[in-house]
Amino acid sequence: MSTTHEEVTLGVPGEKPVSNLRDLIDDNLHMPFPFQRNPHESEAAAGVDAWLSTWGLDREPGVTAMIRRTRPAELASCTSPTVDSGLLQIVARQIAYQFVFDDRAEDVGRLSPGRLLPMLCESVEILRDDRPPTTLLGTALADLHRQVRERCTPAQAERWAWKSREYVHGLLYEAVAQAQPFLLRTRDCTSIRSLTAGVEPFYPLCEAAQPHELSSAELHHPVVARLGRLSADAAVWIPDLFSAVKEQRAGELINLALAHQRQHRCSLQTAVLLAIQKINGTIEEFQRLYEEIKPELSPAGVGYVEGMIGWIRGCYHWSRTVPRYAEVALVPAMP
Description:
Layout: H1 21-28, H2 41-54, H3 63-70, H4 72-79, H5 85-111, H6 117-129, H7 136-151, H8 154-179, H9 186-196, H10 203-208, H11 216-219, H12 222-250, H13 256-264, H14 268-293, H15 299-319
Helix pairs in contact: 1-14, 2-4, 2-5, 4-5, 4-15, 5-7, 5-8, 6-7, 6-8, 7-8, 8-9, 9-13, 12-14, 12-15, 13-14
Protein name: Sesquiterpene cyclase
Organism: Streptomyces alanosinicus
């Protein structure tokens, strides 16, 4: 029996020629949700620049160039195409903040996981205890927390803070895994990725976009909870496909495609196709469960789940064109 999984077909079932890895992803990924964009995107982009400047984050080394490559407002627009301009501003600023925070944590954690503790503990104390910030990143987070509490109900804001703390904890797990790569299994990689993705903190904002608050029974329904898990996984695994080239060259480990490559000792192209099989299965399960539960949901519940769909669809359309992942188009479709 083969252990490399190179028997996965690298041909593409379409008529157009496939020349690079991005085309291979496009032709094999199941994306049933049509592309949408928020009409307030340009306002959100200006708002991100102004917000980063207000808190001095744009003066940090490399931040301005990173923001140009990642386009936070574009990701916000693609994932949240129907929200009003005020909520889109919060989404875009949170995306920008998480990119800045994540890149800083990556740089610090690469030296030693222990060096991350002051940075992560400050974030947890701000989110859990309302502790006054002592750094530029902490000050920006405190302001973001304020904006969320002003826009959301107390219960929604608490869910946002709780999910944001999970994201912070995930960065420490990632640093430990990077420091001891020989211990990392594929399931450990996906568990850490579900935290470091930072997608679930946005779901309370999907709640806040609805005209009415969801009931506790609806919000915590087992099927709705499962939809949340499936959508968050799909939303982060899709960018993993497009970022695999960049992250492989940087020596990063927490990536679904790279985890398959390590496990099966195969080419990157085959690993990407194996990851796509998992993503397609996840999206198909999401579709099936949503069709089953949709008749039971209130209009607010439907809108909430549609917000989850926005993150699946938006992460795909953003990932395939964002400059941050442009290297994917330079790798041939065949090994």
